Amino acid sequence: MLSDFEAAELLSFLTPEARPDVKGHTTSYILGLSGNRDGCRFLRTKPDIITALFALTSDPSIAIAKDCYFTLINLSADETLHQVLLTDIKVIQVMLKKVLDPEFVFSDQICSILSNLTRHLKTCKIMFKVLQEDVGVAKLVEIFCAESFNKKAKFHHLGPLLSNLTQLPEARSFMMDKDRCVIQRLFSYTQYQASVVRRGGVVGTLRNCCFDHAHHEWLLSDDVDILPFLMLPLAGPEELTEKENEGLPVDLQYLPEDKKREEDPDIRKMLLETLLLLTATKAGRDIFEKKSVYPIMREFHKWETDVHVTAACEKLVEVLIGDEPEPGMENLEQEELEKEQERMKQEEEEEKKKRSDTEGAEKEQEAGLIR
């Protein structure tokens, strides 16, 4: 790794006044460094370099700014750098303002950074506080759902950001405020085929919101009607009896022969977990029975091949066909799922870190590194 003298020399190349070609080679080199753990560990000891990179996200050269944003994506994937990025450099305030600009070129990269920074509870709380003081969650949802807001960005990574934010009870309460129409705007994206990132983020958000069982009756009511949006991605083309079809919500009746199920096993598992959460109360179980959820799950279980998804399905089916729990035990499944959610989040973080390391190594090979 670089000596202190070499690091100081590197920093001198990251000023706005430096020659564009020198800046370009330097930002490309640092992008390569940020793609592996040793590089991130080194940069963690050099906050001045990270500050300089953040300043260069406004460089007139698109290539230089792009290198800086992708470096910040890599750095934000490392939890040990969150303190520097959030507290010392204060990236959130600046980045949120840029996301609001419908002409901004790097909005997607910013959404990836903000999503990374909110994976963990501590930094998620900081993000939510700043967000509510300025932009607001409602505005993020509005941008997320208005696909024409910025023709240069897709905003798919706002999905995981919303999912991360709804780790917080206060974020969930805002999303499910009955006087607003926030969570309902996300429902249609459970089947958004153009992006698995957006789809997964939305399903994760809905799952988190369903941990608050006080809202279950409202979510399942005809006014909100979340159930068809959770069931449809799990439904297939199998023929059901006329009686079973008539008991289903209208959107799930007599599905066509070419109906396909959700292709991503992680999303299928989250959908099943969300449905299981909604059975935590007797009122929820009664609605599931009334709306014939079981036939869809029965056919899904026959089709599913992933062992983890099958296990989640069997938990749900057990509740659907089982006897009512004894008084005082109604919310037992919810407590079990809360523990499972924590385990799953750890697994997701480990998997994301592995992907980040792999992508970083590839970038390091491709980048024109200077020594």
TrEMBL record:
Positions of the Protein HGH1 C-terminal domain = 274-327
Give start-end positions of Acidic residues composition bias.
322-339
Q: Where is the Protein HGH1 N-terminal domain?
A: 99-269
Q: Compositional bias (Basic and acidic residues) spans? A: 340-371
Q: Which InterPro entries match?
A: ARM-like, ARM-type_fold, Hgh1, Protein_HGH1_C, Protein_HGH1_N
Annotated stretches, region: Disordered? 322-371
- Tell me its family: Belongs to the HGH1 family.
What protein is this chain from? Protein HGH1 homolog
The organism is Dissostichus eleginoides (Patagonian toothfish)
